[in-house]
Design brief:
Aspartate Aminotransferase, domain 2, 2 domains, 4-stranded antiparallel β-sheet, 15 strands, Aspartate Aminotransferase, domain 1, homodimer, about 35% helix, alpha/beta
Chain lengths: ~400, ~400
């Protein structure tokens, strides 16, 4: 170990982001390196939820759709997320899940490129993106091809047959980050549209959809945005597409006048046409309250601290001989560390048993999320120390840490 | 007024369902006749939500997907709803919104009837059903026709060209109830499949999907099931369809092995293949807690009390000369009263101003939901009394009750 406890405590004392940790409610005895699966609980959520349940729902009942403006909540929360991802007001709405939003964005994009048949994705991305693309292609029955290529071949694979590049900015397994602006420009150069999946980007580091000239984007509310388990997702469309875009999930709350109960569907103006059914207000209120944790936060500083945590962690475990799956160039990665170990599942179980919570990802990845708003240098140093002990003593090699036959 | 206050208080004293009202938290000064838009708050919800937020999320963090079995929550809550609608274990899952579930059910049904091109609906149903059907038909581009006919012409409209009858059991405006078993049999006789929209049925009266031999069904969690604003919806598929059905929203949580992150989509066994993305756990936990209010409840007794409330209310307002849009035959209606008045919007505003909360529905409908678990005879009698006063004194004819130019 290169650092001492005193060293890292010194780093924490001089950390300009240190106070943000007070915005979160964190359990004792746990070092939580899984905020990229489920973000920690912001303190603002608990009181909000009780107020929403007891007062807005319990007392206000149906009237709260107006008096507490539930009806515009998806757009209001969307605008708050927009400020974290370089999206202007009125270009983001919260709605549904990431998977369902991918379907809507891809449906809209393919309708804008009806003469093309290829949907280009990175092989090895989080699989729901390809699943959704395949499901949509099969439903449309027009011979669309879901073409999967390696990350470093995406640019070369862009050609006149490509309708849409559907790319996740940060790979969920490796943490490698694609170059959004460059790939978007390359896609546009061949006449293709882009859909960016920001599940491992939004809230982790500065994203600038506007500067990248992105067409569509989707992302998740429950990872770095800390919106709670299964928090509603978001969807972005560049303003230039609003008038022409049509998405296929034409539910009543995407209608121009939902309460006119008209016989024919007429899409709402702007991003609101990306809505479908009635949204889960309780979960959306939790996400809204959670976003308070980002008030006043500079995401450049968040990424800078994440990079220092990355260096600390990878430096401390460098002697273990584990493969590093994440790029060392800070500009080429998000804010996670992915290490390879042939018995990664058992190692992660042993870590969790010691209170260090990360993720195992098939087939051999130990995944650690770095969330600077609530992680201290001391936490990351301690996690590295525990990992070193587990590897050094082969503490993972016990029956209770072995995988069961079928992982669910 | 035919009844006196003493009369209706006597009815409440002898009401076998009277104690269930204690299961709800109700605001003072309000007579709530809008439980068919947003159900009242069950007392079980508030503590559950706080426990889920503070303990399951805040303390358990990602581990709660296993330790609190969030992963199987959609099926567990689905089974609880199944018991209210005559659906066996493993045939209902909670997921998404009603609109999105309609898309999935219709996509699956059309795939099972690929040689047919007509989707039959009731004209004047809640419009999201036809919107979704049109959106799906347009996306598929195979010439499907969304055919809307009057309720009493549905049976005659069933022919060999009909792929699916998509019917809402209880009409949201009139409260008229279709004959589910008979229409399902008629659909099957011509080789068509059925999708039943139970938004105004589930939790209101006994539904028996099994006895009706229904193929698919969807419904809403936030009306009679009291699951909270925008509560997740549910979807049912008869077990006989499970092996063969494929739905188009092929998100990762409908995969047979979501955590294997396989490249190709392979649908889960059973109703779980109707899932798409990560579900909103907070909203779903509220729905689960809300269903405690139905424990030990006999829905036959609920319908019987709703019918007595219907007779009381319509009898008390009979002298006003308002048109009754709801059928008088208890077997032909759900549990609402819909009255017509040319200035229904203003009348409803005046009612709400007096603490009697119902709905206005275009163009001339005053809609009152009868929810016997938390409504007393005295409440309904008082609501009728206020309506009589408002009509007798033309108290609705004031500037503040007039419609604004654009209703949102």
């Amino acid at each position: 170990m290169a650092y001492t406890l005193a060293d890292v405590q010194q780093l924490d004392r001089h950390d300009p982001l240190a106070d943000y940790r007070q915005r979160f409610s964190l359990p004792d005895g746990v070092i939580y390196l899984d905020g990229n699966s489920l973000g920690a609980l912001p303190r603002s959520v608990r009181a909000r939820m009780d107020e929403v349940v007891a007062t807005q729902w319990g007392e206000g009942l149906i009237r709260s759709w107006n008096t507490h403006d539930w009806i515009d909540l998806p757009g209001r929360v969307g605008d708050r997320i927009g400020r974290l991802i370089g999206a202007g007001p009125g270009t983001v709405t919260v709605a549904d899940s990431t998977s369902v939003n991918l379907f809507k964005a891809l449906g809209a994009a393919l309708r804008l490129r009806q003469d093309r048949r290829v949907i280009l994705l990175e092989a090895g991305d989080f699989p729901t993106d390809a699943y959704i693309a395949s499901g949509l292609a099969e439903l449309m029955g027009k011979g669309h091809e879901v073409r999967l290529v390696a990350a470093d071949e995406l640019a070369a694979a862009l050609g006149p047959e490509v309708a849409v590049l559907l790319a996740t900015e940060v790979n969920y397994r490796t943490g490698a980050r694609l170059e959004m602006a460059g790939l978007t420009a390359a896609a546009h150069a061949v006449g293709a549209l882009t859909i960016w999946d920001l599940c491992h980007s939004a809230g982790a580091f500065p994203v600038d959809l506007g500067a990248a000239d992105a067409d569509f984007a989707v992302g998740c509310g429950y990872k770095y945005l800390n919106g709670g388990p299964g928090a509603p997702a978001f969807i972005y469309a560049a303003a230039r597409h609003h008038a022409g875009m049509r998405q296929p999930l034409t539910g009543w709350l995407g209608h121009a006048a939902p309460f006119s109960f008209a016989a024919d569907y007429s899409p709402a103006e702007g991003i609101a046409r990306m809505r479908a059914g009635t949204p889960p207000i309780l979960s959306m209120q939790a996400l809204d309250a959670a976003l308070d944790a980002f008030e006043g936060v500079d995401l450049r500083a968040v990424k800078a601290k994440a990079d220092r945590l990355f260096d600390l962690f990878t430096g401390e475990v460098a002697g273990l001989g584990l493969g590093l799956a994440t790029p060392t160039d800070p500009g080429r990665r998000g804010t996670q560390v992915s290490l390879r170990h042939p018995e990664a599942y058992a190692v992660m179980q042993a870590l969790i048993g010691r209170g260090v919570v990360g993720d195992f990802r098939e087939p051999d990845i130990l995944r650690f999320g770095l969330t600077p708003l609530y992680l201290r240098f001391e936490d990351v140093w301690n996690a590295a120390r525990v990992l070193c002990e587990i590897i050094a003593t082969s503490a993972w090699d016990r029956p209770e840490f072995r995988r069961r036959a079928k992982v669910v």
